[in-house]
Design brief:
heterodimer; A: mainly alpha; Rna Polymerase Sigma Factor, Chain: A; Arc Repressor Mutant, subunit A; 2 domains; B: alpha+beta; Phosphorylase Kinase, domain 1; seven-stranded antiparallel beta sheet; 10 helices; globular
Chain lengths: 181, 267
């Protein structure tokens, strides 16, 4: 075990879950996300020597994004983006379940499915920024680094994606008062 | 059309403005109905996303696969690597035995790597206390190291600490505020058995370390490698909250714990 590998495992691999979640939001397909993350981690390892004093998490996620665009260009022939599976049984481990009580759980599941559909329908550059902010809790500067756009663009994309999600959420849940909280 | 201040209001909501601007924006929202609605909408979208977005995790198979790819990357010439790199984790599962051999090797290699990391890397980072906390936090994120006593009930977690650590920290569930109590853990820190209370905040784990303070000053709050460290004293205990969650989120948990600590001591 050389020193570079040890440093890499201590500094970069703790962000593997974040990288994987990000890849899932980019691709929607668990198997593709695995491929992209693995490719990204290898690229990160090869480029690790050049990384000095920068934000490791933002750096790794930026590589994930690059790997995704490369893979996406290669696969454009397939020309479809699968929506999240109804029940990702095969990847059940990937979903953390907080199970307070059955009824609550089923409401959550409905809400989750609706939301995932709405998120998947957002344009990719909006979806990316939204998930980095709300789920990964990155600040504007980090999001700008990951997506390589200016902070002003991050702000306007965030505003648009939040407004779009809110509007579609209201449409989707109209007539289902319990889902509107 | 949108109020001209809407982007600033959003920045305020995201904790991106300084104190002076925050006051200005709060004052503006008081008499701008549109911005008040905006703040409410932002809060709703955030709550729904954090409540419902599926928190995916990298699977053990992916971790193993990455570890093996890294092994090979160190050894093989770069030229013929690309094919193998992008083959992904689906291939090994078909060959049962080699997969498990690989898996074991992977686990072994990670263990060695982590050991090396603590010996080689972290001591260089400066303040030894922060180094210890950083390594304890990272170690806790490895599978099966996070929690010794799993419970969302503080009446289970708190007595457990009495038998397993040298301190008795404040413990509470803050689920309504977004910080779910997951359990507790004993950790060796600063040459004593410290108590660690583990919270879940959305997709993020927060470790709250506590140990008997010796009157020395605590390090200043820092951020390092994507993790935030917030220190405080409460009673005769020193505390440190560590997480990769947003800093303002971490600070709001710290405030909840400080208030609770003050109340417990009857201040």
């Amino acid at each position: 075990m050389d020193e570079k590998r040890a440093r890499f495992e201590a500094e970069v691999l703790p962000h593997l879950d974040a990288a994987y979640r990000f890849a899932r939001w980019l691709t929607h397909a668990p198997a593709d996300a695995d491929d992209i993350v693995q490719e990204a981690v290898l690229r990160a390892f090869r480029g690790f020597d050049a990384l000095r004093g920068s934000d490791v998490k933002a750096w790794l996620l930026a590589i994930v994004r690059n790997c995704h665009s490369t893979a996406f260009r290669q696969r454009q022939r397939r020309a479809f983006v699968p929506l999240p599976e109804e029940n990702d049984a095969q990847y059940g481990y990937a979903m953390r379940s907080n199970i307070p009580d059955p009824q609550d759980e089923s409401i959550r599941r409905d809400e989750r499915r609706t939301l995932e559909k709405l998120i998947a329908a957002l344009p990719e550059e909006h979806r990316t920024v939204l998930m980095l902010r709300e789920i990964e809790e990155m600040d504007y500067r980090q999001i700008a680094q990951v997506t390589s756009v200016p902070i002003g663009t991050v702000m306007s994309r965030l505003a648009r994606s939040r407004a779009a999600l809110k509007a579609r959420w209201l449409l989707e849940t109209a007539g289902e008062p319990r889902a509107v909280r | 059309m949108r109020c001209a201040e809407s982007l600033r209001v959003q920045a305020y909501f995201d904790g991106e403005v300084d104190a002076v601007s925050a006051v200005e924006i709060e004052r503006h929202a008081e008499h701008c109905g549109e911005c008040r609605t905006l703040l409410k909408d932002l809060e709703q979208v955030r709550a729904a996303l954090r409540r419902s977005a599926a928190y995916a995790h990298a699977s053990p198979a992916l971790r193993t696969s990455i570890s093996r790819a890294l092994d090979q990357d160190g050894a093989a010439p770069v030229q013929d690597m690309r094919e193998r790199d992008i083959r992904g984790p689906a291939a090994p599962t078909r060959r049962i035995r080699p997969f498990w051999l690989g898996a074991l090797a992977g686990v072994g290699a990670s263990a060695v790597a982590v050991a090396c990391a603590f010996l080689l890397v972290l001591p260089r980072l400066g303040n030894p206390l922060i180094d210890e906390l950083a390594s304890a936090h990272v170690r806790s994120l490895m599978p099966a190291h996070l929690i010794d006593v799993v419970s969302t009930d503080r009446h289970t977690v708190k007595p457990w600490f009495a038998g397993h650590t040298d301190v008795s920290p404040v413990v509470a569930d803050f689920e309504p505020q977004g910080f779910r109590l997951m359990g507790g853990r004993a950790d060796y820190l600063d040459r004593q058995r410290s108590a660690v209370v583990v919270y879940q905040h959305g997709a993020h784990v927060i470790n709250v370390f506590s140990w008997a303070g010796d009157g020395r000053g605590l390090p200043a709050d820092v951020s390092r490698n994507g993790y935030h460290f917030v220190f405080w004293k409460s009673g005769n205990l020193d505390y440190c909250a560590v997480s990769d969650t947003a800093r303002d989120e971490l600070l709001s948990l710290v405030r909840l714990l400080q208030d609770l600590g003050a109340r417990d001591r009857g201040e």
